[in-house]
Design a protein that fits this description.
This protein has an 8-stranded mixed sheet, sandwiched between helices. With 404 residues, the protein is of the alpha/beta class. The protein is 46% helix and 12% strand. α11 links the parallel β5 and β6. The protein has a single domain, classed as Vaccinia Virus protein VP39 (Rossmann fold, 3-Layer(aba) Sandwich). It is built from 16 helices and 8 strands. It starts with 17 loop residues before the first helix and ends with a strand. α5 crosses α10.
């Protein structure tokens, strides 16, 4: 079903006029059609002709996602899917840029006013060096990339991300774009009973979509969001102020965070790991261990590793690697994250994968059933269905606890 609700407005968000909003809604609907109308046809195409063609050409059946890709890429139906999907992504950013350009200084003034109401700290690193694995390309085809060009500190790039990612998710991250953080918070309250973190760190926070729920659900905690993108954390600080929350933001690299040992009780990330390199990930895990107080938790939320799914599903998800400027999307899922956590110092018996159900789906199901939802209900898990924004309607979470 098409998600028809709108993104919740706040002072720092670009305000689209009627024509701009129409184009943005078209893009959201187009992306939904790609996922629900075109993508499900890939399975029958693969089974009825692509796999057979591969067998005839090679003398064997496709063995893994790489073989499946070789079988599918020459097929006209797959080419149609890939091209429309890429076009929809480029149109997404173009439709938002129109609003930002038209508002100009007015948008910046509103955001700066909102930032003044956030009592949380803002740190921007002078001469900060953005890692090349982030700066070398426009991730998700976003013009300028997440971090912008060297020396760029314009929070309009954060505004582009804020509106753009809502359209990319087709609204399934909820009106406040915060479903992933909210889902993990509900999971913590349901599964880590009695855990009350005093200090929380969100790594790779971009504009703080997933950061703010931690302040909402753990209001007494000191919450920090850090990211390599200066424009993103500047905008995130303003966005938090616009939404009435005092949250701290800083431009920092998750590989080396400028906080003392044992400073945090909870270190989290939300779709960070697939944006980092194979060299960076082990260091990020070690940094999480260093930053945690004894008994503290590390939780990374992302899509599941490839060894938890069949080869065709791997192929479907790996299309982001090839067609959406996500070079580490597939590579991250082949890394042994449990081993990385062990090597970082986390006890083996504390490390596990689990699923945090999407909060937006749980609330929708509860509303349809006519009952209220609390954290204790955050337990449902479903199987992957082609076209869903998140496999199984949930976020895969890697959890590890530092030795007490």
């Amino acid at each position: 079903m098409l998600n028809t609700f709108q993104q919740a407005n706040h002072a720092a968000l670009p305000e689209a006029d009627a024509a701009e909003l129409s184009r943005q809604e078209f893009v959201k609907s187009l992306k939904h059609y790609v996922q629900q109308g075109i993508l499900p046809g890939l399975g029958p195409i693969y089974r009825t002709r692509a796999a057979e063609r591969f067998q005839k050409e090679t003398g064997r059946a496709p063995a893994d996602r790489h073989d499946i890709r070789k079988a599918m890429v020459p097929d006209a139906y797959f080419q149609h899917y890939a091209s429309v999907n890429r076009i929809s992504q480029e149109l997404l950013w173009d439709s938002v840029i129109d609003s930002i350009d038209r508002e100009g200084e007015g948008l910046i003034a509103r955001a700066e006013q909102a930032a003044a109401s956030n009592k949380g700290e803002l740190r921007i690193g002078e001469g900060f060096e953005v890692p090349r694995y982030v700066s070398a390309l426009d991730i998700h085809c976003m013009p300028g990339g997440y971090a912008g060009r060297p020396g760029q500190d314009d929070l309009r790039l954060g505004a582009l991300y804020d509106r753009g990612v809502f359209l990319y998710a087709m609204g399934y991250t909820g009106p406040d774009n915060d479903d992933m953080g909210r889902s993990v918070c509900l999971y913590i309250k349901a599964k880590l009973e009695g855990f009350q973190p005093r200090r929380i760190l969100d790594l790779g926070c971009t504009v703080g979509h997933s950061t703010l729920p931690y302040k909402e659900l753990f209001p007494d905690a000191e919450v920090w969001g850090v990211d390599v993108g200066g424009p993103q954390v500047r905008y995130g600080h303003a966005r938090a102020g616009a939404m009435g929350l005092d949250v701290n933001f800083a431009q920092m690299n998750a590989e080396k965070v400028d906080f003392p040992d044992g400073h945090f009780d909870l270190v989290v990330s939300h779709i960070l790991l697939h944006e980092t390199s194979g060299k960076a990930m082990p260091q990020i895990f070690r940094e999480c261990h260093r930053l945690l107080a004894p008994g503290g938790y590390m939780i990374h939320a992302d899509l599941p590793p490839f060894d938890l799914m069949d080869p065709f599903t791997q192929f479907i998800l790996d299309n982001e690697t090839y067609y959406n400027n996500e070079p580490f999307w597939g590579a991250m899922r082949e890394l042994d994250q449990v081993k990385l956590a062990k090597d970082a110092g986390f006890p083996a018996d504390s490390i596990r994968f689990d699923t945090a159900p999407m909060a937006v789906m749980m609330f929708a199901q509860a509303e349809a059933a006519g009952y209220s939802l609390d954290a204790a209900d955050a337990v449902a898990v479903r199987e992957f269905t082609a076209g869903e924004f998140a496999p199984g309607g949930g976020w895969e979470v890697l959890i590890a606890q530092k030795q007490a």
